[in-house]
């Protein structure tokens, strides 16, 4: 379930009337919120010793001041109106001359606070601050259903020091606001996932005020997931688990929250058997999902640029069901340099990342990390030695404590002069490897022997008549009886001739 944050930013007015009138007996306004630490500023840079500071409080309906906190160069003590959380904001106020008061207000703490600085019983500074307490109300009650009307209300107590209050959308647009019974109300009808983000409550007071930030967590209805994946590792974008008619997949690129940049990536209608895809890295997921039967999910092959916010919207009849997935992608990149090996851990969708860090397999080997949003770098000195070699693991931790890791191994270089050995084979394997060569050689020999024999026989018979039935009966008779121009061939093979042919 994803939380959306509202920021209420109180900005000072551009000018200040330096003369206090009978209708205003304060110098500046500070806005605080019940349960959140608030600081009331009071600084005196030129005091050099013998000083004392007293903080006093008076409610807007009371004329009597009460001591809250008193401090000197030597000690600090509480007054009758002090709270448990009250203290000097700077513990070293004796040296810094920062006499600001810090505390956590509760209901009823709104009113006037006086910072009185004395030196040798002489008043050197007095500053009166009006503390207003802010109440922000979000309607309807959480979780806020999609397609409903979101109402943002800001109310201050006391409210007589305000001149203007406006609400600003995540895209930077000023929402229409109206005053009703002392409250500033802004309405946003028909909200959906694209309305998520940070809304700013801009309050301009009638006097200078210290800028303050207030975060209001708002839960938007609809199941939402916060996930992490490795670069080019298949990832499933899950959709509402029902038998739907058609499905849309929307995507907002990483680290662009509040810019209203959500676009439709994919659509599929199982009744018309029609689909449209606008991203090569995403497709309908296979088993156990079956899009033709109305069971939808998507398969993504992620890279850094395809992280971000995905919304799967499944329609059944006239009703829409939405699940959203916020995805961070982790990638390790290695870049060698002249004297070092640089390892980069890159990640996207930074808003949901809690921590990213490198670790070596030897935990006693401390790594020096250089981090900027979206990247954490370490450098391994060259040449690699037994201490720096090994596995380097980058781990990304999301705010929901889900983790994902990628490991890169740095190996030792081969030693100088080391010979490269080839693996040896057993004798019987060598014999098996030689068998095809021997068989081929024998086949060639037999073919040549047959060819030569046939030619010799033909030439011998062409000289003699058919009376000779066996050319091997009496070779001497044949030699003596042969004509002068005839050729005699001894067809008896000799052992040395066989080996010569094998060598060929």
Reconstruct the topology from this structure.
Elements: E1 3-11, E2 28-33, E3 38-40, E4 51-58, E5 66-72, E6 76-78, E7 87-88, H1 93-96, E8 101-103, E9 111-119, E10 122-139, E11 150-157, E12 162-168, E13 177-180, E14 183-188, E15 199-205, E16 212-219, E17 224-230, E18 235-238, E19 246-252, E20 263-269, E21 274-277, E22 282-284, E23 297-300, E24 308-316, E25 319-336, E26 340-347, E27 353-360, E28 370-372, E29 375-381, E30 390-398, E31 403-410, H2 427-463, H3 475-481, H4 495-503
Parallel strand pairs: 1-15, 2-10, 17-25
Antiparallel strand pairs: 1-16, 3-8, 4-5, 4-9, 5-6, 7-8, 9-10, 10-11, 11-14, 12-15, 13-14, 18-23, 19-20, 19-24, 20-21, 22-23, 24-25, 25-26, 26-29, 27-30, 28-29, 30-31
Helix pairs in contact: 2-4
Name a few traits of the molecule.
31 strands, disordered N terminus, single chain, 504 residues, nine-stranded mixed beta sheet, mainly beta
Please tally the helical runs, counting DSSP H or I stretches of 4 or more residues. 4
Oligomer: single chain
Binned, the helix content reads 10-25%
Which residue ranges are poorly predicted, with pLDDT under 50 across at least 5 consecutive positions?
Answer: 1-5, 11-23, 209-213, 452-493, 498-503
Q: On the 0-100 scale, what is the average pLDDT?
A: 77
- From the N-terminal CA to the C-terminal CA, the straight-line distance is 81 Å
């Amino acid at each position: 379930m994803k939380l959306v944050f509202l920021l209420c930013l109180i900005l000072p007015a551009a000018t200040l009337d330096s003369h206090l009138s009978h209708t205003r007996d304060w110098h500046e306004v500070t806005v605080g919120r019940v349960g959140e630490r608030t600081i009331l500023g009071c600084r005196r840079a030129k005091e050099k010793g013998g000083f004392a500071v007293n903080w006093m409080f008076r409610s807007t309906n009371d004329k009597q001041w009460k001591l809250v906190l008193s401090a000197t160069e030597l000690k600090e003590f509480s007054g009758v109106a002090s709270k448990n959380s009250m203290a000097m904001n700077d513990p070293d106020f004796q040296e810094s001359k920062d006499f600001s008061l810090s505390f956590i207000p509760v209901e009823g703490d709104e009113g006037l606070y006086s910072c009185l600085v004395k030196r040798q019983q002489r008043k050197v500074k007095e500053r009166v601050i009006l503390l207003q307490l802010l109440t922000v109300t979000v309607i309807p009650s959480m979780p806020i259903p999609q397609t409903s009307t979101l109402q943002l209300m800001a109310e201050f107590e006391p409210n007589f020091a305000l001149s203007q209050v406006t609400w600003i959308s995540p895209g930077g647009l000023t929402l229409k606001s109206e005053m009703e019974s002392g409250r500033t109300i802004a309405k946003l009808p028909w909200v959906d996932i694209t309305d998520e983000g940070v809304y700013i409550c801009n309050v301009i007071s009638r006097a200078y005020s210290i800028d303050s930030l207030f975060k209001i967590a708002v839960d938007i209805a609809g199941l939402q997931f916060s996930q992490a994946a490795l670069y080019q590792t298949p990832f499933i974008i899950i959709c509402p688990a029902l038998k739907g008619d058609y499905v849309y997949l929307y995507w907002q690129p990483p680290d662009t929250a509040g810019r209203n940049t959500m676009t439709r990536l994919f659509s599929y209608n199982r009744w018309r058997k029609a689909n449209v895809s606008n991203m090569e890295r995403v497709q309908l997921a296979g088993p156990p999902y079956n899009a033709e039967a109305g069971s939808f999910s998507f398969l993504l092959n992620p890279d850094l640029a395809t992280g971000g916010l995905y919304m799967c919207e499944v329609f059944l009849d006239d009703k829409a069901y939405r699940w959203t997935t916020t995805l961070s992608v982790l990638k390790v990149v290695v870049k060698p340099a002249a004297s070092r090996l640089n390892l980069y851990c890159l990640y996207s969708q930074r808003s949901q990342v809690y921590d990213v860090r490198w670790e070596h397999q030897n935990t006693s080997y401390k790594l020096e990390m250089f981090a900027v949003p979206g990247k954490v770098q370490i450098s391994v000195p060259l040449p690699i030695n037994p201490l720096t070699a090994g596995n380097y693991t980058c781990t990304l931790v999301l705010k929901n404590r889900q983790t994902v890791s990628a490991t890169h191994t740095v190996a030792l270089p081969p030693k100088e002069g080391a010979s490269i050995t080839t693996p040896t084979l057993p004798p019987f394997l060598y014999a098996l490897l030689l068998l095809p060569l021997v068989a081929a050689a024998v086949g060639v020999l037999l073919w040549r022997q047959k060819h030569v024999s046939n030619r010799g026989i033909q030439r011998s018979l062409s000289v003699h008549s058919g009376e000779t039935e066996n050319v091997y009966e009496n070779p001497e008779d044949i030699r003596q009886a042969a004509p002068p121009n005839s050729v005699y061939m001894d067809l008896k093979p000799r052992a040395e001739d066989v080996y010569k042919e094998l060598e060929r």
